[in-house]
């Protein structure tokens, strides 16, 4: 059964870039986040939330249709596989991707997620997960969707409720 990447809990992201470094290290043997196939962006300053820009594993991928050289082929379960030898860096796929999930590397080759899932193993907050899909990319019914966010502790919670001790620092 094929799998694909899913942003399961976006609000939990702390922008640590661990996922990006894991991706770059795995596929480019560097830790330069420029080579990552997943991108973490701030939504307007570090005091706001983070956005995870990842391939949505399109079933009928616009990026593939836009490639004039046939460098992209359909991946089982959604998304595409890239043939680097064929790619000439024209950038048509970048323009076609509606979520901005493609960029070019230093050799002018397309950088596109292949849904390997290595990023999920390095995310400390389960923001990312791999889900099983059928060959056509349909999500299996066993996927239960995002985990319910509990949010920050109630502003009315006492110091003791939060930390198990009174504010003085002494255990009661
Ligand atoms: S790279 Fe973009 S267009 Fe291509 S399959 Fe992923 S989300 Fe779809
Ligand atoms: S950059 Fe490469 S993969 Fe993308 S459309 Fe051009 S030739 Fe195809
Ligand atoms: S590893 Fe997880 S928490 Fe860190 S930037 Fe990536 S998605 Fe966000």
TrEMBL record:
| Official protein name in the record | (Fe-S)-binding protein
Q: Where is the composition biased (Basic and acidic residues)?
A: 158-172
Q: Which InterPro entries match?
A: 4Fe4S_Fe-S-bd, 4Fe4S_Fe_S_CS, RnfB_subfamily
Q: Where is the 4Fe-4S ferredoxin-type domain?
A: 3-36, 78-107, 113-133
Sequence segments annotated as region (Disordered): 138-172
CDD domains listed in its UniProt record: DMSOR_beta_like
Q: PROSITE patterns, per this entry?
A: 4FE4S_FER_1, 4FE4S_FER_2
Membrane-crossing residue ranges in chain numbering: none
- On the tree of life, the source organism's domain of life is Archaea
Signal peptide stretch: none
Q: Name one GO molecular function term.
A: oxidoreductase activity
- Keywords in alphabetical order: 4Fe-4S, Iron, Iron-sulfur, Metal-binding
């Amino acid at each position: 059964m094929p799998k694909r990447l899913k942003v399961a809990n976006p609000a939990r992201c702390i922008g640590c870039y661990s996922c990006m470094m894991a991706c770059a290290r795995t596929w480019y043997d560097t830790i330069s986040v420029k080579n990552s196939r997943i991108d973490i962006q701030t939504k307007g300053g570090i005091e706001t939330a983070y956005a995870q820009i990842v391939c949505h594993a399109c079933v009928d991928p616009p990026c593939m249709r836009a490639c004039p050289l046939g460098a992209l082929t359909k991946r089982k379960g959604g998304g595409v596989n890239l043939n680097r030898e064929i790619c000439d860096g024209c950038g048509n796929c970048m323009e076609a991707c509606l979520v901005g999930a493609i960029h070019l590397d230093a050799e002018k080759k397309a950088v596109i997620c292949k849904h390997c899932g290595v990023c999920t193993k390095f995310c400390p907050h389960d923001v990312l997960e791999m889900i099983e899909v059928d060959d056509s990319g349909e999500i299996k019914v066993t996927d239960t969707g995002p985990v319910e966010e509990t949010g920050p502790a109630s502003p009315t919670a006492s110091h003791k409720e939060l930390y198990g001790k009174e504010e003085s620092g002494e255990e009661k």
